[in-house]
Amino acid sequence: MAIIKWEPFIDVERFFEDFPVSSLKEIGTDLAVDVYDEGSNIIAKMNVPGVDPEKINVTVEDNMLRVSGAHEEEKEEKKKHYYHKEIRKGSFERVVSLPQLVLKDKVFAEYKNGTLFITLPKANGEESSHKVQVQVKK
Questions:
Q1: Residue 12 lies in a domain
Q2: What is the DSSP string of 79-106?
Q3: Quick one: pLDDT at residue 55?
Q4: Within a domain: 67
Q5: Element (H, E) at 2
Q6: pTM to 2 decimals?
Q7: I need a labelling partner for 74 at 20 to 30 A (CA). Which of 42, 53, 62, 116 fits?
């Protein structure tokens, strides 16, 4: 009887070898967020083209920024013959840790040309851990 070397991760390696590169893009890189310092504010910038601003939820809780929403589902016509269909529809969510405490009651968000800008004023002292829902302006 031959001795066979045990390789417990070989199936995982095969999975990633066969994994299409284009699928990696669909996992979440389209929800990229830029967070930067701008004087007395922290700014979060996120591209969300094609999303109705009324369907975007922005909350701040426990030093975490949460952006969620939904891409509208369009009715798929059975008459169309798609050669390639990549436009994704459905819900999305992104949570980002903030670099410092912010004044949750003064946070505001604005949607311009498919980009969401969230302004988070910096807090000097301790801030409570309550959750704040932010209204998104057009």
A1: no
A2: T---S------EEEEEEEE-SS-B-GGG
A3: 87
A4: yes
A5: none
A6: 0.69
A7: 116
> For the chain, what percent of residues have pLDDT higher than 90?
28
For the record, the structure tokens of 44 come out as 């979060």
The pair phi, psi for residue 77, each rounded to 5°, is -80, 130
Looking at residue 75, its pLDDT comes to: 63
Could you tell me the two tokens for 29?
A: 């890189």
Q: Which amino acid is at 96?
A: V
Alpha-carbon radius of gyration of the chain: 21
In a domain, 66, yes or no: yes
- Which residue has better confidence, 60 or 72? 60
CATH number at residue 110: 2.60.40.790
On the question of pLDDT at 46 being above 80, the answer is: yes
Tokens in use for 39?
């004087």
